[in-house]
Amino acid sequence: MIIDCHVHAGELNKHYPVWWIEELYRVWGGVHQWTYDRPTMSVGERLVYQMDQVGIDVMCIMTSDHRRVYPNDAGPYTPNDFMLEVKAVAPDRFALTGSVDPFRDIQGSVREIERCIKQHGFNAFKLYPSYDHFDPRDERLNPVYEKLVELDVPMQVHMGWTPCKNAPMKFQHPYLLDDVGARFPELKVVIAHVGWPWVEECLAVVAKWENFHVDFAYWGWFGAEMTFQTVKRIGDLCGYDKLCFGSENSHTHMAVGMFQSFGDVANKLGVDPISPENMEKIMWKNTARLWKIKPKAGVKKKAAAETS
Q1: Domain, as residue range, for 113
Q2: Helices 252-260 & 223-238 angle (0-180, nearest 10)
Q3: Alpha helices per DSSP H over the chain
């Protein structure tokens, strides 16, 4: 079983302007990451095709709302309800991570979180402090955090670097979440990207707060050896219950194989491997627990030849 906890779902030119995708993914292929050699497929069909190609069973797909920080609301925006269209393509293959830009409307964001979770079964919510220009320590966000605690859903949060120029680095540091952990210790937090390049800072925050976790989305960029060493270090220090496999669109095609190569990497480095039990936690069990995903026995991935 493999569950990918970090994939963006949106339609090029509708939810994501081409100029923004080119900027965001310029070092990894640009717009190509949003067509994946199948430009005529719908978003849901394309993501199922990707899953079948690399052996992913379930994707946690996410939205975003970055309109406010661009002139005339011209920034990227994927409505949460679009995820329902994507999921309808293969209901057993998708879990839903909604999002809000809380400073468009704090109370409106609280209502949207409740609507998506109670009416449509969303599994998690994501915030983007750097993309949406806010400090997660801001106490005006307390109603959002309180609602996530009340509904017992995890908050995935972008932390770390992005090529996007309109994303201030002052809002990318994992330590900013320390105050959130202090005020809301029951809030389940998943720090995206291990907060790279502030990995040590991220490790310290995750080790401090019981309900803090990390995902390794876009670590395919760093290769198997560096990723293995970081996974093993965080797991050995913080516990393997805190690590979630995620790919990021630019690395979905290779992230699974990279993680599956960790045994060979351990042999090469002459160190103890990560146990099969802990690899299972990383590759699906931790995400299944946090997102409350119950994989159904008998869900079969289509053969690649059937979707080519």
Answers
A1: 3-307
A2: 60
A3: 18-24, 43-54, 82-89, 106-120, 142-151, 178-183, 199-208, 223-238, 252-260, 262-269, 276-280, 286-291, 304-307
Per DSSP, what are the bridge partners of residue 158? 192
Among candidate residues 245, 258, 174, the one with its CA nearest the CA of residue 6:
245
CB atoms within 10 A of CB 308: 10
Instruction: Give the helix ranges, DSSP H, for 55-166.
Output: 82-89, 106-120, 142-151
Q: What CATH number is associated with residue 24?
A: 3.20.20.140
Tens place of pLDDT per residue across the chain (308 aa): 999 999 999 999 999 999 999 998 887 777 776 666 777 899 999 999 999 999 999 999 999 999 999 999 999 999 999 999 999 999 999 999 999 999 999 999 999 999 999 999 999 999 999 999 999 999 999 999 999 999 999 999 999 999 999 999 999 999 999 999 999 999 999 999 999 999 999 999 999 999 999 999 999 999 999 999 999 999 999 999 999 999 999 899 999 999 999 999 999 999 999 999 999 999 999 999 999 999 775 454 443 444 44
Write down the pTM of the prediction: 0.94
CA distance 238 to 28: 31
Show the tokens assigned to 49.
């095709």
How many domains are contained in the chain?
Answer: 1
